Amino acid sequence: MKGRTTFISRTEKVLIMIFLLLSFGILVLLMFSPQAQATLNNDTLERDSSKTLLDTIFKADNYVGPPKRLQHSRVRKFRKKQILDLNTIDSLTLIRVPGIGKSYAHRILSLRKILGGYYSVYQLQEVYGMDGDKFLSLKPWFAIKTAPKQYKLSELKAGEIPRHPYLSWQQVKVINRLLNRGIPLNSWQKLMKSQAFSRDDSIRLSPYFIEDRAKPLTKE
């Protein structure tokens, strides 16, 4: 019995040694395979990219990045608070404001184009993706120094009412009906007599569709 026990123990040892040698050989092969080398190279590039790549372009053996003339340098953000005109600022200046990247700059300018200009900084809340915290952080950077595109109520013509996102088709219909009746539109009070226009509508639209008398420009 003792001899049989010793024989099995030796066999187990031999099997364990064979298994360890095979495992070590497989590990060595994996470490020096092309796939492993590529992974190691990628890891090294990721670790060193923040130190060596000023333009945040990740490179590989078969990719060296675009020509220098096409590389975008990092945007230098404003260090001191600036008061910028929301109706004249361009995209290159917008992205220098902390908290605004290319996407937000595009949205801000797109909404400005659709509206015909901003009449209040508070309209930034209408930009897609703008939450309360972001709006409060951006608000101090802007002011309205240039008026938006304006139309005089008294000069509107039936069938030629300018399109505006704040103006519904029902409201356009009411304006056309009044003009066709020969009713002069020289004040918002006349439009508000119609159920199609509320006080809120007059506040939103009056900076764009103005009365004959001049109104002071809203600064916020």
Summed up, what is this model?
The chain is mostly helical. It has helices spanning 2-31, 34-52, 91-94, 102-115, 132-138, 169-180, 188-192, 199-205, and strands at residues 84-85, 142-143, 151-152, 209-210.
Detail the topology: elements first, then pairings.
Elements: H1 2-31, H2 34-52, E1 84-85, H3 91-94, H4 102-115, H5 132-138, E2 142-143, E3 151-152, H6 169-180, H7 188-192, H8 199-205, E4 209-210
What features would you describe in this structure?
- The protein is built from eight helices and four strands; from the N terminus they run H-H-E-H-H-H-E-E-H-H-H-E.
- The longest helix has 30 residues, at 2-31.
- The chain has three domains: 2-70, no CATH class; 84-143, DNA polymerase, domain 1; 151-210.
- The chain has helices spanning 2-31, 34-52, 91-94, 102-115, 132-138, 169-180, 188-192, 199-205; strands at 84-85, 142-143, 151-152, 209-210.
Index terms:
about 220 residues; mainly alpha; DNA polymerase, domain 1; 3 domains; two-stranded parallel ribbon; 8 helices; 4 strands; about 45% helix
Largest sheet: 2 strands, parallel
Strand order of the largest sheet: 1-2
Secondary-structure element sequence?
HHEHHHEEHHHE
Helix content: 40-55%
Oligomer: single chain
How many domains? The number is 3
The helix tally amounts to 8
Strand content: under 5%
Low-confidence stretches: 38-55
The termini sit apart by: 98 Å
Classify the secondary structure makeup into a structural class: mainly alpha
Rg computed from alpha carbons, rounded to a whole number of angstroms? 34 Å
Molecular shape: elongated
Work out the number of β strands: 4
What is the average of the pLDDT values?
82
